[in-house]
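Input set for joint prediction.
Command: fold jointly, output tokens.
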Amino acid sequence: MRRPLLAPLLLLAPIACRSAGGGGGGAAADGRAQRQQASRPDWVLVVHGGSGKRLDPDLEPQYRAGVEAAMRRGAEQLERGGSSLDAVEAVVSLLEDDPLFNAGKGAVFTHAGTHELDAAIMSGRDRAAGAVAALRTVRHPIRLARLVMERTPHVLLVGEGAEAFATAMGVERVDNSWFDTPRRRRQLEEEIERQHRQAAPTGASMGTVGAVALDRAGHLAAATSTGGTTNKLPGRVGDSPLVGAGTWADDASCAVSGSGKGEQFIRHAAAARVSMLMAYGGRTLAQAADDVIGSVLRPDDGGLIAVGSDGSVAMPFSTEVLVRGVVDARGRFEVAIGHP
Amino acid sequence: MRRPLLAPLLLLAPIACRSAGGGGGGAAADGRAQRQQASRPDWVLVVHGGSGKRLDPDLEPQYRAGVEAAMRRGAEQLERGGSSLDAVEAVVSLLEDDPLFNAGKGAVFTHAGTHELDAAIMSGRDRAAGAVAALRTVRHPIRLARLVMERTPHVLLVGEGAEAFATAMGVERVDNSWFDTPRRRRQLEEEIERQHRQAAPTGASMGTVGAVALDRAGHLAAATSTGGTTNKLPGRVGDSPLVGAGTWADDASCAVSGSGKGEQFIRHAAAARVSMLMAYGGRTLAQAADDVIGSVLRPDDGGLIAVGSDGSVAMPFSTEVLVRGVVDARGRFEVAIGHP
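tokens >
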């Protein structure tokens, strides 16, 4: 935290796990949403670093530190009047460089022992969206997603074609092995061994990252980036880069980034569903998000972060943990991992 | 039409363009939906062969014949008690072989002068779904989509990974040039020339195919297959293979297959939106489909076909034409192209 601008904000803000919320708690969440509707904060940023099983206690402080660093970067931009779109891109690209998270450096391994990266970004103002999937050599997939949005008439580019576009755009490239980390390789080996034993999944793919934000101009944006699931078939695309499944933004309702069993989020159009429960079903953001995670999806399918156009925040999850944080213009700065 | 079973049905059925419906006509559509709700047909199949600008009059009879052949194949299966999932796969795979349509043989060319094929299939009973994108050598993309659904834990496979899966499954392969047709090559040349002149689009990508069905057991299914848009960047994925964008099925509401400007369908989660307008907004199928095509999407963005769990049918479009047909257990057999 180098910029003095935010120092008072951060000093004032307690790191309060409890109030960072979770799934369930409908009534409390409603109250919170209503209070925020009365006078919305000038800007809000919510960040996640994946859902899944309880973390190794040794790693917990590192996960917290990673999310906090990303929150500070995004908060600084939003405080200065930057756009929500720029903020979520900056947050996600920082987390892509953190080897702890399953996005960019530190991404999980495919069944073939390689890495394939997916990302999406969406602007709530005009529904512009850009996404990439099955990338192999792009250091920051979220940046390429942004370029798909701004430099092509398309929304989603995949595989070789997306790599060729990366070359045309001149974004930073790395060898596929640059994404390797010993921890993720061990997880691949464990996952293959687990499959042979037909044992229960280990949740080893933990660490998809995402951000949603509301900026001073009242615009929403969402971004998500992931390496997918450990041991996935090459070419598999999950929900993260799919608009409406794992990423969504619409100024009329909310911005959403999901984390969990991607195929489940796809089959239920989970991210768009939160928005449509609000738009067509009259739910508050908290109710809509709880409905999707608690009723539409199955227990243990995952979680999501969402911010409404009124500044309300929801972060429900049905897994043991959702690494998450929220920061806003009023000095709220909270990071949490488990259920409250 | 070789099977005697359906002959009486087909002889009785007039080919009535007018009642095959279009966009707009909300009140008439409502009445129709209500009548059908009162006693639903034992099965219903709706097929489309793409939306766009007015057809070359010379081609119109061929488009009709292609759609009719596909309708007969699907109707035969549904009449015998086959599943909606098998019927939509059979319909779409037949259209993939028809060089007139922009799916399989006859697919449009990418900017690189190649073909890249996308398809998706979804079961309304259990929300199982399978999809493929950026395929280059698979003769029937819809069959590979079905195999993704049934043989993998995934929903979407793309590019090289999807090709490797095709090899593992032993599906029929062809050289990429097998998909070539002189008409589509001419369209690529025209489109590139048009871009240089910065003239208005020609609608040359016409011909995405899709089918939605309700079977005797009351289950819905949807399938869509496409070559995408003429002159697209390699790696570009449109709405067709994306669950919730161009393809959707949910026994609780409806099955949908879209056709039009794919990026618009993605940004608005168009197919899932029809279903959610019904589920959360209390709309009838006809109202929900008209809302999405007439209000949510822009004029000229495209059209969709949909069948409800009550047997109601909607086929709105905001383009000049939507090649479409509906056949049901009561002897309805209608094909239409332009607005009524």
